[in-house]
Design a protein that fits this description.
This protein is of the alpha/beta class. The protein has a single domain, classed as Alpha-Beta Complex (Spore Coat Polysaccharide Biosynthesis Protein SpsA, Chain A), CATH 3.90.550. Helices cover about 25% and strands about 25% of the residues. The protein has 7 helices and 13 strands. Strands 1, 2, 3, 4, 6, 7, 8, 9, 10, 11 and 12 form an 11-stranded mixed sheet that branches. The chain has a two-stranded antiparallel sheet with strand order 5-13. α1 packs across α4. The longest helix has 16 residues. The chain starts with a strand and ends in a 10-residue tail after the last helix.
Amino acid sequence: MKPSLLILAAGMASRYGGMKQIESFGPDGETIMDYSIYDAIRAGFGKVVFVIREDFAEQFKSIFEPKLKGRIQTEYVYQHLDAHLDGYDRLSTRSNPWGTAHAVLCARDVIQEPFAVINADDFYGRDAFQKAYAFLSQQCSAQNYFIIGYQLEQTLSDHGTVNRGVCSMDELGNLVGVTERLNISRHAEGVVCDDGLEPAHLQLSTIVSMNFWCFHPSVFAYTHRLFQEFLQARGKEEKSEFFIPLVADQFIHQGEGKVEVIPTSAIWFGVTYKEDAPAVRSGIEKLLGSGEYPMGLWK
């Protein structure tokens, strides 16, 4: 069975100020997701699953179904606030989604095969998808997960702070833990992380997670259990979030298995702020000019 690609596209995009998931960046109106899906198809993935908000499902499907029909199987799932609460009485005032790990959990009923997880608004590059496909097809198991690692220098924004999951690794290149670092920015004295944690200065070569994970489907049952624990501990916090790195960290430290960190040579870029958009368009133009992608992606 071919692996699947799960795309997280239900985020609120509050810092961006718009629906960046479906914004056009390519010459024929291609979104960043289009390039990820194109890379996934040519790597060998058999299905793409979109996690979206139900209130823009019709618009979303009208954009992607005409392009993808006959090219790859598609599924759509919705990240509802009440999904997988198992009777937990959430705050009636809560409007924020529960976070990326909860979004993954929402795809439980449509994925039974090894799968990769990516963000909708990040460009990951062909090399990352090729490595993900190889791992998912040959090495993935209930005890062996995988993450694509990027250098921090490649992931900073010139227009504001970013949050990144900093990866710690052992001598074999396996993940020891992921620490969510907040408010990272580049200054004259280097990269500064203004979140009260140490170290306050990070190396440009620091390996970070850009939320490109590869999982065995057994991760759903494990994530569900951790989500119930999360709800009991932090469910009454108005904006608490259940992140994928938390699941990976617990998976490792509870002795469930290992998470391999595989570095990629692929170029990464993404849109956190509106001001990032021109750089993304420029990056895509360069890749089109080099022949990495055709000018008409789906023609």
